[in-house]
Amino acid sequence: MDNVIIKPAECLKVFEAFVNSLMVTSKFSENLEKATRGQHFNVNWKKARSVLITASVMGEVVMRKKIEPDNLVKKMCGYITIPDAVKRLQYGRKHEAVAIGDYTRSHLKTCDDVRIESFGLLVNPTYPYLGASIDGLVVCSKCGTGIVEVKCPYGSDVNDKPWRNVLPIECGKDKKIFCTERDSDLVFDENHNYMYQVQGQLALYELDWTDFVVWTKKGIDVQRINFSQTLWDEMLPKLKNFYVSGIVPELFTRRVRRGKSLY
């Protein structure tokens, strides 16, 4: 099998036909979502996402340069894992619930009835090779239904203080972060990977908006991001192409897993 050259157009046509034949029913999608609740604390969640392009890596796929796909395949298939002991991960997981609580209280200042629902991994039957895990589904009597995506920045420094210990707007002074201070407002960087994550989540959940929350120990900032059909239309062909040319060949050959080059 390792001697077979899988890059020619003939092979890619077979891989694409395989992807086009994939089918996920609404019932399967519902059962998978329930079975993967708890997300990174749930082994089912980790296994299920290893055969999908998930929203968290969509930016890397869309913006990748024309290089061999091996490193990205390693990451997406779960061959490379970030240890749970990494401080920024521990910090984010520890404070996510607190951040969502603060967001809910902030939202209730302008709306009378708001609740946040937890979800596992969602696979939309229209896109059976894609998946999305959200921090929470927002159900609001005034705004309707949307998504809340929480970021708890941890590391770099602003005036000799780590991001976690300054106001969110002060984080925007650091060029390393995903947002910028502009005219006394914190503005989300629309070219950052997180934008593609948000758009992917909205597309798969078929919703119109995400409240993007930046939370630190000193405060909270909320920016509403609307779904962009134009951006999604640009993303989707690139996502499918990478699944056809990167993920499917690896699922058939497991070359990358065995330390070999995919092509």
Automatic annotation (TrEMBL):
Supply the Gene3D superfamilies for this chain: 3.90.320.10
For biological process, the GO terms are: DNA repair
Q: Which domain of life is it from?
A: Eukaryota
In this protein, which residues make up the domain named YqaJ viral recombinase?
Answer: 44-203
User: How is this protein named in the record?
Assistant: YqaJ viral recombinase domain-containing protein
Q: Which organism encodes this protein?
A: Mytilus galloprovincialis (Mediterranean mussel)
Upper classification of the organism: Eukaryota, Metazoa, Spiralia, Lophotrochozoa, Mollusca
